[in-house]
């Protein structure tokens, strides 16, 4: 077995362990919360205690904590997430459209900002000390350090309420009744609602990619291989292209990590814009203590992040021969 294969097996084992820890933590935390998902039904008089006991037995909540935990792990391993307690629907039927809504919003935003910000960062790094470099660093750092809900509220006030260019909330008009994903996402009404949260997401992600690309080009600018290209008579733009290509690995690694985190949604962004994504759904499920829904959502999010981290480590170790595969991950 080669060093890289051993490294891969080690990373897979760590990923499985991290997944187990993540799902175990959410199982324990949910059951430590005060109250239960049935309190509101009892106090409102919709159900009596006998009916509540029947529902608890139906969901296995009357069993010992260890038996609940074993059943919980078994359901996750088979991807049988059960039924939402308060919605009386299969959990996946609740989560699937919300997850797709989050991905439709955030994946294009991430790809757009990765391309545009990386190109701008490379150009700024090549022209050190220029006004472009200073302005781009200040603006993107400001946007990245500002909480996303602050930026979202500011854009809503300016573009939705003052200028009335775009709607403030939601994914489509109240009167819209699309049938299927195609009619939902391929329409002018959706595009009208999409522009504002998409723009805020692009700006939120932009700072990291710009700084990574800028720093990578700055490091490569004085390297020997560029001096050789300069001596061969390459133009400034051709040299920049080669410097940028040689500084892409950290950007690709960070993109992979961010892609995994997208499965969490941008919770505050979704809440501010009333975007029906998985992050907003998770907040509501936690408030209602809907155990199956929260457990399934957190499992999907944790699994996506851990797989993305694994992919980033493997990519870095595979493409960068200077990274050791004996004991570690990416440097």
UniProtKB/TrEMBL annotation:
<feature type="transmembrane region" description="Helical">
    <location>
        <begin position="293"/>
        <end position="319"/>
    </location>
</feature>
<dbReference type="InterPro" id="IPR000515">
    <property type="entry name" value="MetI-like"/>
</dbReference>
<dbReference type="GO" id="GO:0005886">
    <property type="term" value="C:plasma membrane"/>
</dbReference>
<protein>
    <submittedName>
        <fullName>Binding-protein-dependent transporters inner membrane component</fullName>
    </submittedName>
</protein>
<feature type="transmembrane region" description="Helical">
    <location>
        <begin position="103"/>
        <end position="126"/>
    </location>
</feature>
<keyword id="KW-0813">Transport</keyword>
<dbReference type="Pfam" id="PF00528">
    <property type="entry name" value="BPD_transp_1"/>
</dbReference>
<keyword id="KW-1003">Cell membrane</keyword>
<feature type="transmembrane region" description="Helical">
    <location>
        <begin position="190"/>
        <end position="213"/>
    </location>
</feature>
<keyword id="KW-0472">Membrane</keyword>
<keyword id="KW-0812">Transmembrane</keyword>
<feature type="transmembrane region" description="Helical">
    <location>
        <begin position="251"/>
        <end position="273"/>
    </location>
</feature>
<feature type="domain" description="ABC transmembrane type-1">
    <location>
        <begin position="99"/>
        <end position="312"/>
    </location>
</feature>
<feature type="transmembrane region" description="Helical">
    <location>
        <begin position="147"/>
        <end position="170"/>
    </location>
</feature>
<dbReference type="GO" id="GO:0055085">
    <property type="term" value="P:transmembrane transport"/>
</dbReference>
<feature type="transmembrane region" description="Helical">
    <location>
        <begin position="12"/>
        <end position="33"/>
    </location>
</feature>
<dbReference type="Pfam" id="PF19300">
    <property type="entry name" value="BPD_transp_1_N"/>
</dbReference>
<dbReference type="InterPro" id="IPR035906">
    <property type="entry name" value="MetI-like_sf"/>
</dbReference>
<keyword id="KW-1133">Transmembrane helix</keyword>
<dbReference type="InterPro" id="IPR045621">
    <property type="entry name" value="BPD_transp_1_N"/>
</dbReference>
<comment type="similarity">
    <text>Belongs to the binding-protein-dependent transport system permease family.</text>
</comment>
